Amino acid sequence: MKGWLNVMTRFPLFEPETDQMGRYCQLLTHLLMSKTLSDDMERVAGDLLQDLVGYFADTLKAPRWLKTEDGMMVL
Question: pLDDT tens digits for 12-30?
Fold first, then answer.
C-alpha cells in the first residue's frame, strides 16, 4: 500500500529549458515544412507545435519575482 501512495502523490512534470523548447518547436516546424508527413500525421504534429508554442509563450511571460512589502521575492 505504501508504494501505491507514492505513485498517487507523484505527477509527471514537463519543464524543459527554454533553449530546448525552442529546438523542439524548430524541429516540428522544419518537419511540417518538409511536407513529408501524411495528412493525419501533419495535423497531429501541427497540434503538438501549437501546444508547445503556447506553453513556451506562457513560460516566457510567467512572472519570475513578486514585489512584496519586504522587497522582491523570487518565485
Answer: 788 888 899 999 999 999 9
Q: Which residues touch 45 (CB under 8 Å, ≥6 apart)?
A: 28, 31, 32, 37
Helix ranges restricted to H, 1-75: 2-9, 18-33, 39-61
The DSSP code for 35 is T
Tell me the C-alpha distance between 59 and 18, whole Å.
8
pTM, entire model: 0.69
In this structure, the dihedral spanned by the alpha carbons of residues 63, 66, 71 and 75, taken in order and rounded to 10 degrees, is: -80
70 vs 52: CA distance, rounded Å:
36
